[in-house]
Amino acid sequence: MTCEEFERVLPELGNDHSIEQDEHLKSCSACSELVSDLSEISKQGRLLQACEEPSPWVWNSIEVALRQEGLIREQPGNLLVHPPRLSWKLRWLVPAAAASLIFFGVLLHERGGIPQHQAKQESPAGVVTADLQTEGMPSEDMQLLNSVAARTPSMRDAYEQNLRAVNAYIHDAEQSANNDPNDEVAQQYLRNAYEQKAMVYEMALDRSLQ
Amino acid sequence: MTDAKKQQGRLSEAEAIERAKQGNADAFEALYNLHKRRVYSLCLRMTANTAAAEDLTQEAFLQLFRKIGTFRGESAFSTWLHRMAVNVVLMQLRKKGLPVVPLEENIETEEESPRKELGGDDPRLAGSIDRMQLQRSIESLPPGYRMIFLLHDVEGYEHNEIAAMVGCSIGNSKSQLHKARMKLREILRMSRAEKATKP
Hints:
Largest sheet of chain B: none
Distance between the termini of chain B: 49 Å
Helix content of chain A: 55-70%
Radius of gyration of chain A: 29 Å
Largest interface: A-B, 53 and 56 residues
Order of helices and strands of chain B: HHHHHHHHH
Number of strands of chain A: 0
Oligomer: heterodimer
């Protein structure tokens, strides 16, 4: 067997070689080296199978989508979101996230997302205060919900559920930070919490500003 | 360690699947964590673009979770998921007009054609390939070669499966794989030679 003949059958070769091919490999260092190299490349390729880590935003987006589609359902007695623990280094994110929420609120107002008379009718100050006291929903969240309800009343409950879940997430994050200020493993949880809330706002605004 | 993490550690894949069918958020996350690296790695190598790979990873998992109620366990869950991920990537590449199916009668340019010479003066590659070097070399492969190499050598699919997935013949899949490996060998040897000549 010549090198050219061996080269022609090489793409079809698996791990088993014919006697003729084996003899050629024993006598030809070039072909033997080639087979060894290709085998090494294949072996090293397998080691690349799962060596990259996606960013945490991927799961955040998936989770938000699953909630929106109703695939994630409230489990009785279960926390919807995981209690994060914040380190002191990350607290700067809290005002940053608050600023982004305020930005969304301002945007909503500027685009006239909430007709004032309607807002007054549907959520007069007294009612909002009562809601806040009894259910712990921040006023900007109530404002957002009213805006959603004005546009698509059927979606209000879904958004309220999402906001409550994400608020619980943020609350747990803050509590964990207070309990253990030196914890350094919580960066992701913190970002998750505010990212989730921002996404809920974004989606609600998209809906209410259509 | 959070409750969710503890739960993920305890949940077997089968339990997670059953709970995910009931709408349990932790179960979805556990399944995601079990398989995210492999799915994302596949998407990243196929697209060579981080943002696109993340979008595709998201899409693959969403498709999977939407259909999880229909999973009856006849095949391995990982097989089901990875096949879905491959399909999502292939569909996306097709949408973008990128070559997915290697041509049966491949017209190779001088540049793309693997060098036909067998061996040379350099010693064997065994033991000298590092991961980064191989990753860069794979990225520089023509898309058709890269696709087949990733599906066969990295993901472990057989030629008949690849042929069905990308829509080519088994012979073509074998031929493209061989050319991809030859091209990689050439790139890796050149890279090693360059390194050797640097002071």
